[in-house]
Protein 1
Amino acid sequence: MISFIAKRLAQSVLVMAIVSAVSFSLFNFVGDPVNNMVGQDATREQRLEIRDKLGLDDPIITQYSRFVGNILQAEFGLSYRIKRPVDDLIVERLPATLELVFVSAVISLFFGIVLGIYTGIKRNSWISRVILSTSLAGVSLPTFVIGIGLIYLFAVHLRWLPSSGRSGVVELGWWKTSLITLEGWRSIILPAITLSLFQLTLILRLVRAEMMEVMRTDFIKFARARGLTERAINFRHALRNTLVPVITIIGLNIGGLVAFSVVTETVFQWPGTGLMFIQAVNFVDVPIMAAYLVFVALLFVIINLIVDILYFVVDPRIRLGG
Amino acid sequence: MHIKKLLTASIIALIAANPALAENVLRWTSQGDALTLDPHSQNESPTIAMNGQMYESLVTRDADLILHPELAESWEAGPDGWTFKLRKGVKFHNGADFTAEDVIFSFERAMHEASDYKEQIKSITSIEAIDDYTVKMVTNGINPILPNQLTSLYIMDKGWSDANNVSVPMNYAAKEETFAVRNANGTGPFILVSRAPDEMTVLARNADWWGEGMFPGNVDKIEYRPISNAATRVAALLSGEVDFVLDPPLQDLKRIEATEGLSVKTAAQIRSIFFGMDQGSNKLRTSNVDGNPFKDVRVREAMNLAIDRDAIKRVVMEGLAFPTSMITSPGVLGNTPENDPPVKTDPERAKALLAEAGYPDGFTVRLDCPNDRYNNDEKICQAAVSMYARIGVIVNLDAIPKSQHFPKIQNRETDFYMLGWGVPTLDSHYVFSYLLDAEGSWNAAGYDNARVNEITDAIAIETDGDKRTSMINEAWIQVKADMPYVPIHHQVLAWGLASTVDIPIAADDAFRPRFAVMK
């Protein structure tokens, strides 16, 4: 067990190193931050001086090793754009993203499983067909279009919900939450739905497929033969067996939700880490881009590690192989 | 009886304390939030606009861009510089008195190495207080347009800055943010209430402002929230969540106009869009011909005649542009009807000129163009590509983000490029010194005319107004003959407003809340 975890940890460190190296080398193609940092009347000498101060003209290897050295000392530098420490900015923005991800995970789980079961059992009803064809829109329409569509329907046309922003924020220590006020819920609902649609569709289709698969197996036939009620068969026996792969997928998709939140946060001006990342890309704010990519990579690595360890506990075959 | 009295008193107190009653709250949005509240740290429009509501400068401009006294009451030029008489009885938001000491402190702060304004006021060699309300600025030679250069140079309180350890602007070497990044203490009409960058900034009316009652504005509270996505920004206006959008996209203006209770205001902007042709290099980098066709004035004229600016205005800009044959806009000293005559399009003549110059079959060249900087920038370039094809010049378009585009111009790595130029001083010197002087830092066209260089230096120190204007005129006539650039149009700016607010639109795209009237 210990050697298995050690091996996985070593692999994670390698993954982090590769991700940071690849993302760092990409920054050279994003453009020159200096032009965004000074007014148009700055002279060429002043521009060169700033490049020099920031070390932008050093060889890429030097820049990268300086970057890694700083990370190891938990030193992420100062944002070029707003000149504030990057770790402060991420800590400040993280609650907004995590709350958005949490609410959309709940939405996609709840509706995904419920609708999945329904369409799995009542395969031929017209309601199932409507649900399935609507859910196609969830996977095929870009998040951007869904978001703008929801804004125009619920904010501009019906005027039920605010079009953008995060209001009703209450400070609980350093954590700013918008989940304990009505105003906060009104502003989170549209972005959360937008972010959840893709995952919801995925879970719905997965649960449905698993449900149909399990319903064909022998032990369900046995259950029927034993004279159990349909309700007991569906929920106690069939559903339990479908949930194993669903839980695996969900674990991995939490990371996906954080990554997808970039688009949703931009459309809804949701002040989380994703919006910060997009603004950093437009400005070529390298310290923020670097820290954000490392953060997302770390998130994926941790989730993967946990899932691997869970597998190890659950599935004896891995123990034998590893 | 006693209880009744108490009840009445508390109801009165409640009514008095409830700010929602009869309070004019202006809610507005734009794409980009201010980067910092430190007034000398970033010379960037949204930052200047935000800080200009709390801080003030010695001189300011109204919506017609006419210079007015702000913290200075009057100013005059002497043989070696300018003397400013300061306004008396002005207080900072923290209650401190405004005196000459604060002006000297702020200018020295703005001249600091870490300041983004040091270039703008580099003509000032020293600054001294004659008395508490008189300041003398000694300049390196006479600078006839110094007041024009001071309109966004905001004055801070020396005591407050020293106490909060912000006596110099934030610099890149610092590891920690300074107090001035998120706190402000100016003399202006609005006081900072709260600020969450990229979320919401709330300002409240300063009842002790010196200008109280002198301006039409009646706004008590300003709520600003940036919305970076254009469609969402327009949605916030359509849904009534904001009263004012500074930068709605041009394609949504008709929709805003058609909505009841909303209107659109447009104005000619002080920003001209043009192409630059590198006529300084001996060989073009991206062309199939040897040498440099742009060195020949006939080729440059052909490049100008090939562009149908009216078609660009009609098809690409939805009518929102002023076609031009000059690279600076009306409103800038030097733009006259003679220097900015109606545009001409003549592909036949252009072809003939190319043949005369030795390029009967045209040539190829790459056009570098930004795709996220100016109104419809990439589409303008696409239109130009097809117009040049008609005269046999094959243009390969490279449209890229501004962060990659502008370094090409800065580093002189482009043969043919799009650039837009605004003129904050409203004086041609700002155009000549950057775009037309041989040493100009944005002169990637490599234009070098001895007389124009001479005039650029001369108008920096000429105080005789008439003489100066005639020199500016002479230089523009020379530029018109040499055609170093291909001017396209002056941009139009548009604001979206609820009918409950009236804000004067200005060519510099600045929001002036002291003139904002809510009905």
Note: DSSP finds 13 helices and two strands in chain A.
Protein 2
Amino acid sequence: MRLTVNRKTVTVKAPPLTRLLDVLREECGLTGTKEGCGEGECGACTVLVDGEAVNSCLVPVAQVQGTRITTIEGLGGTHPLQGAFVKHGGAQCGICTPGMILAAAALGPRPSLDEIRTGLAGNLCRCTGYAAIYRSIQLASRARSRARSKGKGQKAKA
Amino acid sequence: MAKRRAVGKNVLRKEGREKVTGRARYIDDIPFGNVLYVRTIRSTVPAGEIADIRYNFDRDGFTIVDHLDVPGRNIVALIDEDQPSLAERTVRHVAEPIALIAHSDRTTLATADVAVSYSETLPTYDPERSEIAFKQIAIDKGTLERGLAAADVIVEGEYRAGHQEQLYIEPNGVVAVPENGGITLYGSLQCPYYVHRALTVLLGLPPEKVRVVQTETGGGFGGKEEYPSMIAGHAALVAMKAGRPAKLVYDRVEDMLATTKRHPAIVRHRTGVKKDGRLTAMDIDVVLDGGAYATLSGVVLSRGMIHSSGPYRCDHIRARGRVTMTNTPPNGAFRGFGAPQTQFAVETHMDVIADRLGIDPLRLRERNALRPGDTTATGQRVGKDCSALQVLREAGRRTSFSRRRRTLKGTNRGIGLSLFFHGSGFTGGGEVKLASKASLALTERGVQIRVASTEIGQGTRTMHAQIVADTLGIAYDQVDVSIADTAMVPDSGPTVASRTCMIVGRLLQRCAEDMRTRLGRMTPAAYFKKHGGFVVTKQYEKPPGLEWDDETYRGDAYGSYGWACDVVEVEVDPITYQATPVAFTTVHEIGRAIHPMLAAGQIEGGSSQGLGYALLEEVVMRGGKMANAQLTNYIIPTTLDTPPMTIKILEQPYKHGPFGAKGVGEMPIDGPAPAVVNALRHAGVVVSEIPATPERIMKAKL
């Protein structure tokens, strides 16, 4: 079976009902995706499938053939959310962080607080009480807006 | 000393980049070659004798371990020596480990059939009826009868709290690797030297043959204080027998079924008060459910008892407590360590008293709050950094508490508060016994911190590096932090008890002061170039004047205390009886916030766990077994269950803390439960047991 993971095509040998989570961690070596509960409650295994946040522990790999999958490794380290989570305390123990960042990324560039609260309701964090996560996401939006307006000022660029 | 540059600032978390990019490696992320996976065969009965064990599979390729394979002593070495690593004949609780089977293929391992038969005995589930007490504690101040005789009114109450699961998002997990005639153990854990000692005892190995390395740890909250010694022992037994690395990572269900939880508690109060609200006598009785083995129960009870009279002045106190054995999985460390249970009781009781006397709850607390120079239940004279009154007034002012209380009266919304404190560091003579050490090494890159204190999310590495950087007068980035590896770091004691900043941070500050003197006017780099590196090690020294008597339970129970006040507004749905916290304000006085954002993170996270404890988190035990051991029906707060929080940090420096800092990790979880229950009471719902689920609220309303 062929999958597109983080913009690369990979061939996997796993049986079709294998959890996407296991394929990513074990066959692709992408251990940034975590297992917290194995039943779709905690969201630690969140990845993006065609831009939408899903629990990879609930998805058989056969279902994602032909889709574009993004894991935390696929964000490359320069995504505004990643910087903001370090700077504003969104990551404490870090185990929910990859899933939390991907779920936040799926909300688009400038989600409202209500959209964040609703959109992250499937991602559990036991450390932060969520407040620092909201701040990280909102300040990432602001940083992005600033970067954009600055970029526009310098030269017209899409 | 050079000008401070890092302390008080929100410098970047040391391992932040790794955590947001997925590069941080937790135990399950690290590849080990030739590994055996381990499965634990557990008791399915709460009490009995093992009659027979049958391994109904082809043993080829399997490694099987039972108690006969233990080369040393078959115990999980901690305080008492009552808990076996693997049951021999008797089992005392469901999920008690009996044997281990291991295989290189996980499917083969999962499907292997093991049948254990038992001759069952009668289990005990009621901690009050249990005849076995792991520990009993008595605290006496003044003469109770005199205090009661002086009272105008005597108010009685009984309060109950259930289990609570730590629910770190990364379950317990370890890998044991046989090397150099001994064992190296990698794992998700809080206390490397606890595991180190447990392994030397279990395996009968000299200390130098055991090495424990903490891997990045996805939350602990006490749940990885003592339990890793159990799971590490199991992996090590398999690895020793098979001569191969052995991996044991629990899934969520197994983690919830088998590992320790917060002790359930029953607390009774009988309190004498004057009409004006002054406390004249406090008679307190505490029973904790210890579960099947002692684990840390005795010390949990100790902290619980010392905090049981709350942050109040009262001349006549009698407090009696016991923690007893029941046939349920052993309870153990969880953030707060006994204090959340007993302060839930006393703070709920304070509102009962306020109601009885017709006094505003804030005024009642104002009248009785400890002031500098007052004495606690153990007779400890609190110092200038006692801030009970300040946090109370600040929280009251910020929320317009008394006015808001009048406004909301008669609606389905209530407002409640709680005033609480939390001792920093080990209780009583604990720190003297621990005699912790910390080291600081001068290296080519700058300096390296060497402590066994673990980073489990709270920011240990970052906060320690700030303290060292400013004491030495060098940049924060020049301070490295060693991983917590017993081959490289001294025993700084466990990462528990709100001691990592105040106690270990102070040790590091003393190391840095020494190093500063040795460097003279040279920079670390210049010194290293000329003279090479060196290591400074410091050991705990008791601050002068601190005295404790463990026999009489009199004296200075803690070096210092943090003080806090929570105010919460709760809305009760008249149809579903669901209570929702809608606003939360807390004021915490913590000496000095080394890293204000990390400190606020502790307060927000701990408060959220406290709200879960108050309203949502219910462990249902049936036949001695957790019936809801999964995240589908053990509910912890989600984004939608957590109200907006207003956090205010006050700073009243403690002279023996680094830059004045006291502890902050545990205190936030002490306050939310009573504040919520008091808010419910204000909204017309009288509950005295947590969690205050819709079922309990309905019962109270009908």
Note: The CA atoms of residues 518 and 546 of chain B lie 30 Å apart.
Protein 3
Amino acid sequence: MSRKDELTAQDLLPLPAAMFHMLLLLSEGERHGYALKREMAKRSGGRLNPGPGVLYGSINKMLEHGLIEESDERPVSHLDDERRRYYRITPFGRRVAKAEAVRMRELVEMAEANLGLPEPA
Amino acid sequence: MADPLKLYRFLLKFYPARFREEYGTPLEQQFRDEYGDAAGGLGRFAFWARTLRDLAISIPLELLRELRQDLSYSIRIYSRRPLVTILAVTALALAIGATTGVFSVVNALLLRSLPFRAPERMLQLRNAFVVSGSAEFHAWRSRSAYLEDAAVYDQAEMNLSGASLATRVKVTETSYNFFSMVGSQPEIGRSFAQGEDVAGKNGVAVIGYGLWQQFFGGDPRVLGSTIHLNGTPLTVVGIARPGLDYPAKTAMWTPTVFDHQRLPKNGAIFWETVGHLKPGITLAQGESMFEAEAEQRLPGSMQQEGVNRPRLVPLREQLAGPVRRASLVLLGAVAFVLLIACANVANLLLSRVTERRKELVLRTALGASRARLVQQLITESVLLTCLSAAAGMLVANWAARLATVAQPAQLTVQNYTILDWHVLGFALGLAALTGFMFGVLPASLIGRLQPTEELVRGQPGNSRSRARSLRSVLVVVQVSLTLVLLGGSIVMGRSFLRMLGTDLGYRTDHVVTMSVSLAGTRHGTAGLRREYYREAIERLRKVPGVVAAGAINSLPLATAAFSADHFRLDSGRVVEPSTVMVATPGYFQAIGTSILFGRDFTSADRTAPEPVAIVNEEFARLSGEDQALVGKRVKAAWSESKPVIIVGIARSVHYNGPEHGVFPQLFLAAEQRSPSFMTFAARVRGRTEAYLPICRDAIQSVDRQVPVFNAKTLDDRLAETLARPRFYTTAVLFFGALGLLLAVIGVYGVASYSIIQRTHELGVRIAIGASAQRMRWMLLRQSLLPVAIGMAAGVAGAFGLGQFLQHLMDAAQGVDGLTSAIAAVVLAAIATVAVWSATQRILRLDPMQVLRAE
């Protein structure tokens, strides 16, 4: 059903920032929607803080593109809320995230060459 | 907590069904978590602001995404069955298009606002009392108890000559207050001043905007300049607003209505009165006051019947005229066809839903909700309707253009167009309504899907026998209506063909015609006019390729009003009122009317000792003398003029076209009396249209100041005469064809539906030895039963249709047995083919497969 067979990683680039963040987070392990959101807000210093509609819209899109999938595995029962859904990254999602990172690296290299960026602290 | 969540749940309903079903729970969960985290009044406020923003962004995005998915799915579904799709789109496009086209006429005539002051209070006073002059008229209108204001006018075509060119224009002679009455002050300059409609002061004119652009090149210096109307000098004082061409496409207004002699004219004068009803007085009150006044001023006038009776008519009704009733009748008919088309396409899609049952059941079993499937079906129907509506606009545009040719509106502002908000809105409304109708009908079926039961049994439930009988009833209604429409089409088509085949008594091919008016020109006396006509005909004859040329003051297919008289024979017998016309030598030859007895006019008639005349066969027949009439004298019964000697008898002709009959005619020799208006006719060799400019130039060369107008081929004049019956015939033929198409779709739909429903039964029957052919015959019999019942009802309806058609077209006759038989045979044959092809799939039925599927 998904379109990953028809799509290559390049077709999906550039990824929206929120989607890239979510893929990076999921590459660390499975998470449910609200956890993704909180972690994303934390790491971006509050700049990326999508509301539930936008969040699940992105999740929906990533599911459709085959970047992530729903996970059947649940955490230990006292930590689990039955109503929550957990997601994990697919191999295709990993490839897409990598391709996005490479794209960004190339962009940064170009910026360095042209603008002379300061060394990271 | 309960209340905010309730509100949020309500807002979630705006998401598309699939998204809501998929993510409703986590969304609510997250809402609860975040609501809990947001503390304090300000925190809650900020939380709500974030939530609403989130909804405002994500809902449209999700709607669009789902629409895109549904659309691409719909396209896949439709392209799988192209024939069904094309049939449905065609039927709907024709129905929506025809309805919109007819509506564009109704809209232009009855709904679009008129460019007048208080148009709803404007009235035409038909057969109003005659007043003697300006003073009496203005005294009457200012005293009127029911009219706020009134103006009087008279219309005529006149020659307009400026510095170099000359042209023919429609002139309205009015009272001075015409422009203030209609509420349209001139664009440039002024309207007529008070008292300017009396003799001696009325040498002024206001010209129409279009005429100003075309004839005067939009030059404002025309104000104050002198123009000549039928040779009379007038000063231009104003240029009317663009779009004002009331009444009846007027190009110039003069305040000369009370001064009959001011502008020389041909023909009779008909005064028309228009007015505004006083505010607060109803039309009924106004009518009774008007009638009382009419009776008082013209005793006995209210006892008259028909067109001569004084009447107060709302201006809009007056302008819509005879087109109004026909258009409303057509709109009613076409709306009915549209309804049937909708029901029919719904039926067709319904059987498609049945075919897709398995798919839908499977999707339900996999968790798709009813709302989700309904949304998909409605998207499919809306897509189908949008396609149909788009194609329908082409049909509508074509219909509006056809109507413009057939029954043109009186004013430019009333032109029929689909590019009008009312019309576009109407089409959009139709599309939405039809889309909804067959989106909802198939969708209502989904409510009855029982996934588990159906998946287990592989068989649909048993709740549809009612639906099946409903379909049969629909087919009965539809077939009967189609038969009525077909019967009507055949009658109209036959009448029209008969009309085309009528021997008119003259030949319209290879004839060019054009007119001149010498009123107010320097050709003022009978002798000068005769010389002008003689010279013009001479020049026409010299044009290479012209084989005959002549002129008459009332050309067939061109003139609606004639003068008529009673004629007394030597024997004392009086012939019924006969039209009197004036013709030149060569006229009969030019239009191909043969002289049966005696001779044609010749140039020698000028010096003949007594006036000569030619009569037509009808006159000769009514005189009781027939061919013996040649050489006898007749005299106008009520006139002192000299008797005329009959020198020839010409064939009778259908003067006003094939719709109308022949009447007695008497032709006087133009050599002996020369009217101020004549129409030339020249018979030519080769391509007729090519001769129009050449012949016009030939006549124009006689005198540059005399405009030559209405240059047309006689074939074109015939086509104009036939435009209205052609339009109605086309419309009814179109409805007939549409009805037939719908009937085919209906019968096909029901047949294929019943086969799908009975696949199992048919498989079993074939398995135990019944032949597939026998099964087909059985289904054919069963499917054609409602068709037969519908045909019986339709024949009765078709007989009733005869009168309705006679309203539309004079020559149409009632529906006879033969017509009904032809319609029934056509319908039965097509229905049989439809069912037969629908049952083709029985031949492919593999009984083993059907049984295994159990």
Note: Chain B touches chain A at residues 15, 19, 22-23, 25-27, 29-31, 33-34, 50-51, 53-55, 57-59, 61-62, 65 (CB under 8 Å).
Protein 4
Amino acid sequence: MSGSRVLVVDDEQQILRALQTSLRGAGYEVETADTAEGALAAAAMRPPEAVVLDLILPDGTGADVLRELRKWSSAPVIVLSAVDDEQEKVAALDAGADDYVTKPVGIDELLARVRAVLRRTAPSGEPVIEIGDLLVDLQKQFVSFSGEPVHLTPHEFDLLRVFAQNEGKLLTHRTLLREVWGPGYDGASNLLHVNVSQLRRKIEPDRARPRYLLTEPGAGYRLVDPTARA
Amino acid sequence: MRGLARRIAALVVSIGALALVTGAIFALDSFAPVLSLGVLYVFAVLPVAVLFGLAWALPVSIASMLAFNWFFLPPKHTFTLSDSENWVALAVYLFTAVVVSGLAARGRRRAQESALLAEIAASLLEREQVRGELDRIAEEAARALQVESARIELGSQRTGDDSYPLEAGGRRVGTIHLERPRAGTAASRRHLLPALASLLGIAIDRERLAREALEAEALRRSDAMKTAVLRAVSHDLRTPLMAILTSASALAREDLELGRDDRGQLAETILAEAERLDRLVGNLLDLSRLQAGAVRPAPDVWTVDDLVVQALDALGDAGGRVHVSLPEETAAVRVDAHQVQSALVNLVDNALKYSSDTVGLHVTTTPSEVLVRIVDRGEGVPLGDLERIFEPFQRGTNGVRGGAGLGLAIARGFAEANDGRVWAESRPGQGATFVLALPIVTQAAE
């Protein structure tokens, strides 16, 4: 993964410099841009393998950049957001961002996320997905945890299926609702929250401290393999 | 309608009284000289004067005189008099009747005026806010003053005729304008208007005084707030900044011989202190938003499980010291997840600060609310401080353990912005319990 080209977009020069130094130190080749236009130009000239994108740019929003970029590139994008940009963040994730980190960002966190999005491949066509102690058999509609069968309602199973097929990826509320309940359920986040809580009761050893099904505040959920965490 | 009924009543009472007294004189005629009985007509005039005023008493006086003449004075059943003495007697009766009825009517009017004033005074006192109800008050005043309509204007400017100043403490605070007075009511208005005007003036001024007192109090509080903010800023912001500056400058100097461990330690300090600064700035921002009323929750339905999970997650390593118990059936609440999470984090953070041991987080439900109890085993909070600790920049009296004293104020602010409540309970010497209560929404599972 080292040697991959990462495009960093931020209008604050100090932050740009800090990110550039850290990413370069971790072995990545770093391109920078400080405007939306500059970002698209840089991405077109030297297509990056991953993008770190600030949400608020002087000539547009990160979501705008993302929509343009997605027309021709599927490079994973990590959104860089401040606490106040909640809505912008969700808009960017819905527009196709792969993940986000909140400013001020620790470099460990950012590096881990960059590694994760670079590692991620397209959902596998495998009928049986194993994530840590969790086993999801899509064909037989069977779920077990540590070898013990887990009984799920149809919606809980669908939810777990979507999570399992996108292991490690941040899924927004909207994405999950569309995938599981279908279009027209965009506002029904209560369904999602209640089902996630029920799913946790069934698969998490300690539901107050979930290790598999994580909440990303203000954005969505992601299913991770706790045994494989770098 | 009422006027007509009253006129009929007055007519009936007048005729009745007249007939009654005439009958009585007939009955007494054989026992006393008839001329001395004429004075009895005063008993007809007096009640009419008291009940219906001079306008009715005067005709009754004249009618009494005529009836006395007709029925009792010779030659009877004529309006002529044979004896000139009787003319004098009749004139005296009439005069007495008119004077008595005038006095009685005046007494009655005074009583009415005082009753009216008392009524208006009471209604002015009852009103919290005079300014918003000027129209209604003007209506009442118009009724009392017997004018078609009245209008009250605030301010000290002088305007037009037919207006009367409203004054309080020698200052003009407003004007009352009277329009189309009813005929024949000028006298009572002359009496009533000054008293009413001073009542209105005082009521309007009272409101100004109350507002000024409130503004002064707000100013005093915001002054105290500024002092507290400055103190917090100068101490709590400076301390981590100082640590960062010292550590970073040490790292930047090339002539210092630092080992790997030393460098690592300096970097750790910078990291930790920068995080502390970030939290403090976040708290100050949250608090200023709460105080400015600029907190707009974006509510959504969440399970309490999820909110607790998010709060523990945000606490990082410190969250490991929290012992959690969740109810069998999870409950759903409609809140802004970020704000409630912040409230929970601040409550737990506070408990961790005052407890060297673990901290308990117990979720229970009542039919209408979810209660999240955060139980520490610190020294507890003195009873007198249970409310005070929720004020910004306040710390418990027993011991100062860092922090700017913002956490509890933020927790309460965010809870209340989401229709929740936060309060503290304490058993002295056995630790404190902070309770966050949120209203339950009916669950929708599928």
Note: The longest helix of chain B spans residues 186-252.
